[in-house]
Design a protein that fits this description.
Layout: H1 2-5, H2 10-22, E1 39-41, E2 44-46, E3 50-52, H3 63-67, E4 73-79, E5 92-95, E6 100-103, H4 112-124, E7 133-138, H5 147-158, E8 164-168, H6 183-198, E9 208-212, H7 218-229, E10 237-240, E11 261-264, H8 268-281, E12 287-291, H9 297-306, E13 310-313, H10 315-320, H11 323-338, H12 344-347, H13 350-359
Parallel strand pairs: 3-4, 3-13, 4-7, 7-8, 8-9, 9-10, 10-12, 12-13
Antiparallel strand pairs: 1-2, 5-6, 6-11
Helix pairs in contact: 5-6, 8-9, 9-11
């Protein structure tokens, strides 16, 4: 929340922002609905493609307050099975001039037990007029040796209540986590998660997404695409992307030297390029959620045309506050009309399809 930035540290401001939303102290936004932003994905009728990325509501405490901001969907967490404190403070740093954030939280989590209570309470209050879709980002504990079992616990505990599940194998702040993106390890995790999902006692099983890093080699991209795009993989989508360990030369703020994952405007093009690559490599078979540096309707449209069906924000919410949600929606709706797209779904992967036509 921008006002809080002037008063306190980045992490304290973050926690205060979550508390304000949790206790309903922020007025409900007058969310506008735009016909050209509505889209059917899976069995969802998404009112708009603008969502909240994981990491804001780590403990799943402020679901109602976040949905009141006008998001089409939100992703809460990441949550680990057992409580863990994360890394030592300070572990979050603002880069104001760069519209960026560096964090090294390290999956600080209260664990599944309290988070499931919050999610179940939200689920039990649901009416037929659903305001948005809710997913949970699943992490593994730092000390866990069998990563697949941590993700399975997440499916078993949250799967009965949420609309989608995200397997986070790409946080840069948990030692060894990104190695789980390797083909063999990823296949092992996916097999276990999909099997657990199939056993949930609900008719419509929650779609499963895998969240990947932006710092991937070409061979990494091909390996991940091969796994998730296989027709029997059981994976429904990708979240692209997590934070980056790279540091663009353009960074101005002194905090650029801090260790951790970089998010915000400097990640924008890197994540958009990866969306385009993965959309092409997966032949458009999986739903992509694009995240990284979305501050405007143009940023959102760039990711959609690269192959994202949905987009998420985080840093722009921190820097510009809740009004940024309606701003992005309004700008995106106007841009779609200006570029001749009848509906947002018509723009998904447009640039990739155009490139293919140009080279064929």
């Amino acid at each position: 929340m921008p006002t809080l930035h002037k008063l306190t540290s980045a992490e304290t401001a973050h926690n205060m922002g979550v508390a304000i939303l949790k206790y309903g102290l922020y007025p409900r936004c007058r969310a506008q609905n735009y016909d050209n932003l509505q889209n059917n994905i899976f069995d969802w009728k998404v009112m708009n493609p603008v969502g909240l990325a994981a990491g804001f509501d780590k403990h799943c405490e402020a679901i109602d307050g976040l949905l009141n901001l006008g998001f089409g969907f939100i992703e809460v967490g990441g949550v680990t099975p057992e409580p863990q404190p994360g890394n030592e403070k300070p572990r979050v740093f603002r880069l104001h001039e760069d519209k960026a954030i560096i964090n090294r939280y390290g999956f600080n989590s209260f664990g599944h037990q309290p988070a499931v209570v919050h999610v179940e309470n939200w689920y039990n209050k649901l009416s037929e007029n659903k305001r948005g879709y809710v997913g949970v980002n699943l992490g593994k504990n730092k000390s866990t040796l069998d990563a697949a079992q941590d993700y399975v616990k997440g499916v078993e505990n949250f799967g009965p209540y949420v609309d989608f599940l995200v397997i986070n194998v790409s946080s840069p702040n948990t030692p060894g986590l990104r190695k789980l993106q390797a083909q063999d390890q990823l296949q092992t995790i996916i097999k276990a998660v999909v099997e657990a999902n199939s056993k949930l006692e609900r008719e419509n099983k929650p779609p499963i997404f895998v969240k990947i890093a932006p710092d991937l080699s070409e061979s990494d991209k091909v390996a991940i695409a091969t796994v998730v795009a296989a027709r029997d993989s059981g994976i429904d989508g990708l979240v692209i992307s997590n934070t980056t360990l790279s540091r663009p030369e353009s960074l101005q703020n002194k905090n650029k030297v801090e260790v951790g994952g970089l998010s915000g405007a400097p990640l924008r093009q890197m994540s958009t390029d990866l969306i385009r690559d993965m959309y092409r490599l997966t032949f458009g078979r999986v739903v992509i959620i694009g995240v990284g540096g979305v501050f405007s309707g143009q940023d959102a449209l760039d990711k959609i045309k690269a192959g994202a069906s949905l987009v998420q924000i985080y840093s722009s919410l921190a820097y510009e506050g809740p009004p940024v949600v309606e701003k992005i929606k309004k700008e995106l709706s106007e841009l779609l009309k200006k570029e001749g797209f009848e509906n947002v779904s018509d723009a998904v992967g447009y640039d990739v399809k155009e490139d293919k036509c140009a080279t064929s």
